[in-house]
Write a sequence for this structure.
């Protein structure tokens, strides 16, 4: 019978049974993998298939490094001219007063042969017979032994080692065996381990070098191509390696075997992980890979059981709530129609009852069937199974509610949140905070009291008390975390609003906040901020547009006026060349030329004022000697002032005062001020020019004010000054309302704009008929 022909209820039962069965298979596979672990690695044996990244590889590498340094230490002891020298001294012992003897390697081999030992090709001694008749056992103090070549003893010193000649000889032969084994394994025969140890004596005239290596061409760059490597320089505490670790004694052994007094030495060692040679590394790699096969059965169980358990769970997730195949309606069971919180409590109580029943029945049955050493594990398995079944039933109940759309709408929390949202609508922040705090305190107090009551008053088993109390504590923790989330969310919203206000206050009028990140009162506040931002942006754009139109209008009109005006001036000049004798016509030409030049000046001033006020002038900042510039201006206007009997009195310090400004624009400022004084000062009066330098000071707000050059020009006005000082810097405004003198009324406005463009200050003071203008510029730092 095909599975699809079964009823939906039968399909659900079969899928549920298969889910539980293969879930058990999955955990059996995990247990199999751990129980068959020979290296203590567990499931990572399957996950990690690279032998070079294991601890076994690292330990073998460090053992070989230790053997290499042991070989280096024994090399001068056992070898001469690149071969083992049997004539070299291997041992010195004192057997009595004036009875000190030295033994060569040949002597030791001969002595051991008389003692019944046989030497194989690896210099390994094996006892094969009884000692010869002429052999005798000798005992004495060790003065020096090849097994410890860097130690010297004296029989007169307390604690000096005493041993038999046989034992010491066996120790020396064992050291020779290790030395020769290292030589055969790493130097005489091909090996996957490549190494080079070099000691260099740079202080000697010949620059000697001692090298121990099985690959003379080894370099730091070459060693990195082998796979796993280590580079230890002697002149640094740091080393370069891609191994998991390097033995701590490696660095000290490298330094201890240095035959010179310099620190110029290094170790290069690397393993060719392609394993072209059969040696201990390739054999260990093969053994490692074969050990992984022990995990295949467990891994197959894990994957098979896990996949089928997941597939059956996914099938149950899909069909849960559906009564028939192809039916899209969701059918709720009777307990699914209760409130969400009631369902959670009900299934929790069912799970608790199942745990109690498990303890009273199933655990006791397990104690009767299983041996005592398996009781603890069986109890954990049974409790876990009961808890999983209860959690599974609760999960599918919540899933059916979710599909039906009642998991939230059918909860007490949803109903109460609706009531609270109705209450909070239109409430102030103060009211919301007060009510929320009272509700928070009441719920917390209730949960803590319930936990204390369950812990102190319920007379059930410890497991039940722990479970109930734990559930209440979890509910309390969940509630407090939810409150924290709400507070954190509101804090984030307030920070976003504060950031938006900071951006607006900084002039970023186009800044907008994302309204999707807000709710409640914060949403209304964020929407209002966006409206303010849009209003400011619109107003700013209109202002910029208006200023641009104004500038364009002034430029265009000035250009249109300037073209015919130039023609008028040119034709006046041509008429004057006609040698006209009529005085009346000449007067007309004078007036026409005067008014045309005045209109030309007005047009040029208008364009300059527009550019200066809008900041569209390109400045060429340089170091300016301000005092010298003022004296030059005085010279330019001296003759002009004399025509109106104006006396120029200048007071300036002798030191050079440098400022950073545009010389041409600064001259224009001074020219306008001097022209203004020439036009409006009382005839036969004095014009005072003062130049001073202020020191570095601190403002009332605590800010450090730099030293400044202050230029002041003062004169007595010929006409009453019935106007404020700030109005004189407006366009087309002059001190005399009647405008009886020539001038455009733009001079002071241009001077102020040019001064401010150069980071200066322009101030006008009026005291009766006294007119005073003051300019301030920061002194260049090098001039302070």
């Amino acid at each position: 019978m095909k599975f699809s022909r079964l009823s939906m209820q039968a399909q659900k039962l079969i899928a549920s049974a298969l889910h539980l069965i293969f879930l058990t298979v999955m955990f059996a596979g995990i247990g199999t993998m751990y129980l068959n672990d020979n290296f203590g690695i567990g499931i990572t044996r399957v996950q990690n298939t690279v032998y070079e990244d294991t601890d076994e590889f690292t330990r073998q590498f460090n053992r070989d490094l230790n053997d290499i340094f042991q070989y280096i230490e024994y090399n001068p002891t056992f070898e001469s001219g690149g071969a083992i020298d049997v004539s070299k001294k291997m041992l010195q012992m004192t057997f009595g007063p004036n009875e000190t003897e030295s033994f060569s390697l040949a002597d030791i081999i001969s002595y051991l042969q008389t003692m019944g030992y046989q030497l194989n090709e690896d210099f390994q001694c094996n006892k094969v017979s009884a000692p010869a008749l002429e052999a005798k056992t000798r005992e004495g103090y060790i003065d020096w032994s090849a097994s410890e070549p860097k130690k010297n003893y004296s029989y007169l010193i307390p604690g000096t080692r005493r041993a038999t000649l046989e034992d010491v000889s066996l120790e020396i032969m064992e050291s020779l065996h290790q030395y020769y084994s290292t030589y055969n394994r790493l130097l005489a025969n091909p090996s996957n381990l490549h190494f080079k140890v070099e000691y260099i004596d740079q202080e000697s005239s010949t620059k000697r070098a001692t090298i121990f290596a099985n690959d003379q061409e080894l370099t730091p760059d070459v060693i990195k191509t082998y796979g796993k490597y280590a580079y230890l320089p002697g002149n640094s505490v740091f080393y370069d390696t891609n191994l998991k670790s390097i033995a701590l004694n490696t660095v000290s052994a490298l330094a201890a075997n240095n035959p010179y007094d310099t620190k110029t030495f290094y170790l290069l060692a690397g393993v060719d992980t392609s394993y072209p040679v059969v040696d201990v590394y390739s054999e260990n790699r093969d053994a490692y890979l074969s050990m992984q096969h022990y995990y295949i059965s467990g891994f197959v169980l894990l994957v098979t059981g896990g996949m089928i358990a997941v597939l059956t769970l996914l099938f149950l997730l899909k069909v849960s709530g559906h009564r028939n195949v192809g039916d899209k309606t969701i059918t709720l069971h009777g307990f699914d129609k209760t409130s969400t919180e009631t369902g959670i409590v009900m299934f929790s109580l069912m799970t608790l009852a199942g745990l109690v029943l498990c303890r009273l029945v199933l655990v006791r049955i397990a104690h009767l069937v299983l041996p005592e050493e398996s009781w603890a594990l069986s109890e954990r398995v049974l409790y876990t199974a009961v808890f999983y079944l209860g959690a599974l039933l609760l999960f599918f109940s919540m899933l059916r509610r979710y599909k039906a759309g009642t998991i939230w709408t059918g909860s007490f929390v949803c109903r109460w949140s609706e009531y609270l949202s109705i209450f909070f609508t239109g409430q102030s922040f103060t009211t919301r905070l007060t009510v929320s705090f009272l509700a928070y305190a009441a719920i917390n107090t209730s949960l803590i009291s319930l936990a204390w009551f369950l812990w102190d008053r319920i007379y059930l088993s410890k497991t039940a008390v722990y479970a109930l109390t734990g559930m209440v504590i979890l509910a309390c923790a969940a509630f407090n975390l939810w409150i924290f989330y709400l507070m954190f969310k509101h804090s984030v919203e307030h920070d976003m609003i504060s950031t938006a206000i900071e951006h607006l206050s900084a002039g970023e009028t186009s800044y907008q906040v994302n309204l999707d990140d807000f709710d409640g009162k914060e949403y209304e506040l964020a929407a209002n901020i966006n409206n303010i931002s849009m209003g400011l942006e619109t107003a700013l754009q209109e202002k910029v547009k208006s200023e641009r139109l104004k500038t364009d209008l002034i430029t265009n009109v000035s250009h249109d006026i300037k073209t015919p005006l130039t023609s008028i001036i040119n034709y006046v000049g041509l008429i004057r060349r006609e040698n006209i004798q009529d005085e009346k016509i000449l007067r007309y030409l004078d007036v026409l030329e005067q008014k045309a030049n005045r209109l030309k000046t007005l047009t040029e001033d208008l364009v300059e004022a527009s550019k200066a006020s809008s900041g569209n002038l390109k400045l060429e900042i340089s170091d300016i000697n301000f005092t010298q510039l003022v004296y030059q201006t005085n010279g330019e206007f001296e003759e002009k002032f004399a025509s109106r009997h104006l006396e120029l009195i200048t007071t300036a310090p002798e030191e050079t005062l440098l400022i950073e400004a545009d010389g041409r624009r600064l001259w224009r400022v001074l020219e306008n001020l001097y022209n203004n004084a020439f036009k409006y000062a009382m005839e036969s009066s004095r014009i005072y020019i003062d130049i001073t330098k202020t020191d570095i000071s601190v403002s009332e707000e605590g800010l450090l004010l730099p030293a400044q050059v202050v230029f002041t020009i003062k004169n007595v006005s010929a006409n009453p000054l019935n106007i404020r000082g700030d109005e004189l810097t407006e366009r087309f405004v002059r001190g005399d309302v009647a405008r009886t003198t020539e001038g455009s009324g733009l001079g002071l406005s241009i001077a102020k704009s040019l001064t401010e463009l150069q980071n200066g200050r322009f101030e006008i003071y009026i005291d009766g008929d006294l007119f005073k203008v003051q300019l301030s510029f920061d002194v260049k730092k090098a001039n302070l």
In short: The longest strand covers residues 193-201. DSSP finds 19 helices and 22 strands in the chain.
